[in-house]
Amino acid sequence: MLAQLVFYVFAAVLLLSAAMVISVRNPVHAVLFLILAFFNAAGLFLIAGAEFLAMLLVIVYVGAVAVLFLFVVMMLDIDFTQLREGLQRHAPIGICVGGVLFAELIMALSHWTMAPAGVSVPLQAAPGLTNTAALGTLIYTHYVLLFQACGLVLLVAMIGAIVLTLRQTGSGRRQNIEKQHARTPEETLVLVRVPLGENVLEQGGFLRPQTSYYDTAVPGSYGSTGQPAVEKEETGA
Amino acid sequence: MAQFFYHTLAGQIILMLLETLAVLVPLLIGVAYLTLMERKVMAAMQRRRGPNVNGPFGLLQAFADAIKMIMKETVIPAGANRALFLFAPFLTFSLAMLAWAVIPTGNGLAVADINVGILYLLAISSLGVYGILIAGWASNSKYAFLGGLRSAAQMVSYEVSIGLVIVSVLLAVGSLNLNDIVLAQRHVWFCLPMFPMFIVFFISALAETNRAPFDLPEGESELVAGFFVEYSSLAFGLFFLGEYANMILMSGMISILFLGGWLPPLGLAPFTWIPGPLWLIFKILFCLFVFIWIRATFPRFRYDQLMRLGWKVFLPLSLVWMIATAGFLMATGLLPQVGGVN
Q1: Which of A114, A142, B92, B300 is 20 to 30 Å apart from A67, CA to CA?
Q2: Which of B9, B149, B176 minimises the CB distance to A71?
């Protein structure tokens, strides 16, 4: 009784939030509704007794995939008026695609028959085995080749994503930590013995350098063009 | 009486509520006093006195802070997304509380002793990023948004190494149940044979909770206060409490995964007199002390250094360690069998 009630609550919220994903205007809200939908799907898994799948759904989809979705969508700069302008022009194509999909759905569903309750027999795991262990023994023995193939597909996708986004940065400054750590004081520091009291000018009780910074600055560097105008005025006054 | 509590629906609900309260009330008091502990410990490390005016040894400071926070006005920025703006701190805080459902404080003493406890913890802690991301976006402020994005990237990066470290621990345990993980450490705590992973986990926990030296999402010198710059009053308070509750949670996870949970260091007479929950509390306090110690000691990381550490150092290290652990257990025949505690 209670389990059934919880099932219907989860299912209803799942369908509702799935509908909201495609109907809300704000894309960030859409992603948040998608996350809510994931959550409710996890809840349904829990009711079905598949606690491992439920947790995995939350960790992988909600904890990682949807975060990146949200990340990207938040940074999009969307102009809603521009979106609405496009609606008129693209409406015929949209209606065509929608019509094709709808026809396919009808064709598929017209041959669909619900199995009687007695026919569907849930797979029985070995007694005393948690469903984590049951899944593990199945995936890593019977389906090990498929599992490896999945891994390869993901690897290719990952390499593809990296190649697509890799940019050759020639001018950018990179930090080479190993090189920095390998430096010794002998390579970088020079101790210079400076004679006291040379090239110094006494001026109103203060010791000042004989030449101004503006005279000794490296040509072309900031300040080598002479004193800024404002400072000159002040000294002149 | 036992009949009522164990065999009727109403009784079970009441029992569940009582169990939840028994975890939440000490936790909230712990959070309140953790803020005081942090200020006191940091003060001692910097040769100051810390809060010492309200109550003896400043013990009432936590309540003074709470009252101040509640009495302030809640300011919602003009361009903010109202609903999400208020939802974010609530989410952060409630997630920090939710995770405690599976933490065992004694043999089998958890609100929910579930088979996939460690996955539940991982799932809840990976959700923590949403509170921060939503707060950053809903505030409609550049600083908050930058803080939120930084935090999201940081937490996702360090979750990877946290996950791999947990896998190496699980290899040695053979169960996802937190209770079994603690019981597997009867002979030796995992922090000894897996010392490098203990350190990796600890540092990742610092990054995961946005604590110094990884507190870049807050980065007050560049982002004012990061993702919660627009928050005030109770909404800010919830973020604050959530952060400290997360610290306690991470310390709890470290204690359970590496420091033997509620187990005493040696199964001998003087140690076994102290009850299990107290041992867990001691270990959590030790971890929290180290959290604060680190904050008082190290300067903040630069952002590229943070990412480099996560992806180029911790990820390969924990991956290699995981394979090495599996190989070692396989070679020595110590690999735990399906469904059993070793």
Answers
A1: B300
A2: B149
